[in-house]
């Protein structure tokens, strides 16, 4: 049994906007005598768009009209209609995620790009996606080591740490190539990001908007920015600006990092500085930042991996690495897919005990109630390996007790469990409801509090569901 999905990735970054179309192959890897085990066996890039500078109306707003024109043009060039798309992600990243109209733009794009394309943002998710797009996870797995990918864009640097292929940590820093911009004709600085301005003021450097830039003038700033990156991976501890440059969190160095890779627009300069003779080629400090990183301890003290993708790492990750496949033993009593933007109510390990489940779910469902109206929500928990039927009944009764407000609102019950128990759990819930209410119960998907999911139409003769996990978080 084999099936193909067409996936799109759309990335609106601080500096660039781009698209990618990928073909995902889903196959049953089980034998004829066992339960089907559907996995994504192949990810093939079908089309890469041109790379565009992200169009802005001003420093605070995205030009959605021009973004839409770009996307329509690239769909036409690729020969793809939006109704052909099965899955994928729209990623809004870096400083662009903080624009005043970012939320409106991303939701509009989500609707434009296809029934099952989702809006995603947030530095943690971007770190993982770009690291996978760069191929760092695979290198880590194949060589049995811990590696970090730093995706250096225009406004932020996203870090993802992989240990033997598994994502073990993420972080994000406000370090990027377009935090200082200049006019290429005159060489005068036209923009300095607020955090960078504070460093300049603290050090007393004569760098300001209107100043004519040169490499010598900017070198001390570039060294400070690079030292922040060095400290982020444990190569120093003394940079005074490290804490201030953390976007949301740094990585926790619980294990020694032996390898490093780079992606994002600045990565091309890091790997191949000889190709960039003009230090202000892009009207910013990206080329100079790349050169400084190349000369730093990041390059000297760690084994450097050349990434599979650099400037396209995030969009490749979005187009090929955001879709997961549910387990094959699942329950859905009515085909109501696709379901989009479904918030996740995640139970902790303590709350996942049947005795505590009911109260915990009821309490957390209050978070999803606005003006007396409850919204559709997915309840997620870890579950157990090989639970007895009696234990499954206890889970089912506890879930129905806690999800009673959803039943009163006439909403279907949606449960996502990590371990392989969804079919029997879902059918038990359906039986207890006397087959009168809709139940969707999936397994094989790991979720966290604050995430959202989209569930696509059934594939592989209805035995599995494609799921995209995303985080709707917009930077301030």
Automatic annotation (TrEMBL):
InterPro entries: ATPase_NBD (IPR043129), EutA (IPR009377), FtsA/MreB (IPR050696). Transmembrane segments: none annotated. It holds the Pfam family EutA. Gene3D superfamilies: 3.30.420.40. PANTHER family: CELL DIVISION PROTEIN FTSA-RELATED, ETHANOLAMINE AMMONIA-LYASE REACTIVASE EUTA. This is Ethanolamine ammonia-lyase reactivating factor EutA. The lineage of its organism: Bacteria, Bacillati, Bacillota, Clostridia, Lachnospirales.
């Amino acid at each position: 049994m084999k099936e193909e999905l067409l996936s799109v990735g759309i990335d609106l970054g601080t500096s660039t906007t781009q698209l990618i179309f990928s073909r995902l192959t889903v196959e049953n890897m089980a034998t004829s005598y066992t339960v089907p085990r559907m996995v994504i066996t192949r990810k093939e890039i079908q089309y890469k768009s041109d790379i565009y500078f992200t169009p802005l109306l001003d420093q605070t707003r995205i030009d959605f009209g021009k973004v839409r024109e770009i996307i329509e043009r690239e769909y036409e060039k690729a020969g793809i209609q939006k109704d052909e798309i099965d899955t994928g992600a729209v990623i809004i990243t870096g400083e662009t995620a903080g624009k005043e109209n970012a939320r409106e733009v991303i939701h509009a794009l989500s609707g434009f790009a296809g029934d099952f394309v989702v809006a995603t943002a947030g530095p943690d998710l971007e770190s993982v996606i770009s690291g996978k797009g760069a191929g760092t996870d695979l290198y880590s797995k194949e060589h049995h080591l811990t590696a970090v990918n730093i995706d250096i864009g225009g406004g932020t640097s996203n870090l993802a740490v992989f240990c033997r292929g598994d994502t073990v940590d993420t972080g994000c820093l406000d370090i990027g190539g377009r935090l200082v911009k200049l006019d290429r004709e005159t060489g005068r600085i036209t923009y300095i990001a607020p955090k960078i301005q504070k460093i300049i003021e603290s050090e007393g450097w004569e760098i300001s908007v209107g100043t004519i830039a040169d490499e010598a003038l900017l070198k001390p700033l570039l060294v400070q920015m690079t030292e922040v990156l060095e400290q982020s991976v444990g190569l120093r501890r003394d940079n005074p600006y490290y804490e201030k440059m953390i976007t949301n969190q740094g990585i926790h160095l619980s294990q020694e990092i032996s390898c490093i890779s780079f992606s994002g627009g600045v990565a091309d300069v890091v790997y191949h500085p000889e190709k960039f003779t003009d230090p202000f080629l892009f009207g910013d400090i990206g080329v100079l930042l790349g050169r400084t990183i190349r000369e730093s301890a990041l390059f000297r003290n760690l084994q450097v991996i050349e990434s599979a993708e650099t400037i396209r790492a995030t969009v490749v990750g979005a187009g090929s690495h955001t879709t997961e496949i549910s387990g094959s033993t699942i329950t859905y009593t009515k085909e109501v897919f696709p379901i989009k933007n479904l918030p996740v109510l995640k139970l902790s390990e303590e709350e996942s005990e049947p005795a505590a489940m009911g109260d915990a779910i009821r309490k957390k469902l209050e978070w999803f109630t606005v003006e007396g109206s409850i919204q559709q929500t997915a309840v997620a928990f870890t579950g157990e390996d090989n639970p007895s039927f009696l234990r499954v009944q206890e889970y089912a009764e506890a879930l129905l007790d806690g999800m009673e407000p959803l039943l009163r609102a006439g909403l279907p019950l949606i449960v996502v469990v990590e371990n392989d128990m969804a079919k029997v759990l879902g059918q038990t819930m359906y039986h207890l409801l006397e087959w009168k209410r809709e139940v969707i119960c999936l397994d094989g998907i790991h979720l966290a509090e604050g995430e959202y999911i989209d569930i696509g139409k059934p594939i592989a003769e209805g035995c599995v569901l494609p799921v995209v996990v995303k985080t709707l978080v917009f930077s301030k």
